[in-house]
Amino acid sequence: MNVLIIEDEKALAYEIELFLSKNNFVCEVCFDGRSASEKLAVNLYDFVLLDLGLPDYEGLDLLKEAKKSNPEAACIILTARAEVSDRVKGLDLGADDYLPKPFSLLELQSRMQAITRRKFGLVNHIIDLDGFLVNLTDRNIMYHTTSVNTITKKEFDLIAYMLLNKNRTLTRAQLSEHIWGSIVNDDYDSNFIDAHIKNIRKKLSVFAPADWLETVRGLGYRIKTIV
Question: Which helix (H) or strand (E) holds 224?
Fold first, then answer.
């Protein structure tokens, strides 16, 4: 999932980026409001982590821009401001959560996971797909009691992202952008995503047909049913 980190404390920004990248997020970092505003205008993100105390921009104004240009993005405010009014304003403007500084990176990750579950209506983090048990927290797949250990990190990312968007057709460009962080040219993108889906099906077919992973001709892919 794509994350935009907007934080003028460079050491903290890099620390967040490193931690989230190790936990399979695709991160971009901005140290000021102007560059963040430019990125928000042209890119789509799953999460926006926003420091309110930017040197060149009012953080709450940037939050408004984020909600307008990236309405589906979850926004978490990172702030050293002690005033409750600032936090209330942020939540009123559409922020999904806030973390007062200093904060634990593990807590940040936990809150991001909780927001993801709420956003996509997931009650459990283990999802049963015709006998394939996908654990979104531990990032593994079991077929009944047998581990499917041939699935790569990026292949799991594809399955997880389609699960979060269950019964919704995702284009190859959408899958590329949200998993790899960029949209490549159409021909290359098509082959790239198709190859990954083919590999996933081949690996899962050793255990059972993955009929729930559906190709939507001319459009893309979707996970069509969840048991």
Answer: none
Q: What are the tens digits of pLDDT across the range 159-184?
A: 999 998 888 999 988 888 877 775 44
Residues linked to residue 213 through DSSP beta bridges, in sequence order: 223
Instruction: From residue 159, give the alpha-carbon distance in Å to each of 19, 182, 212, 223.
Output: 22, 18, 11, 8
End residue of a domain, out of 119, 146, 177: 119
Angstrom CA distances, 203 to 157, 160, 192, stand at 15, 16, 17
Burial 90-114 (b: 16+ CB within 10 A, else e): beeeebbebeeeeeeeeebeebbee
| 176 neighbors 189 (Cβ within 8 angstroms) | yes
Task: Report d(CA 197, CA 224) in Å as an integer.
Answer: 15
CA dist 215 and 127 (Å) reads: 20
CATH of the domain at 80: 3.40.50.2300
Q: Which structural domain, as residue segments, surrounds residue 53? A: 2-119
- Of 119, 154, 186, the one marking the end of a domain is 119
Cα(32)–Cα(24) distance, integer angstroms: 25
pTM: 0.77
Q: Are residues 151 and 215 in the same domain?
A: yes
pLDDT digit string, tens, across residues 100-119: 889 999 999 999 988 988 88
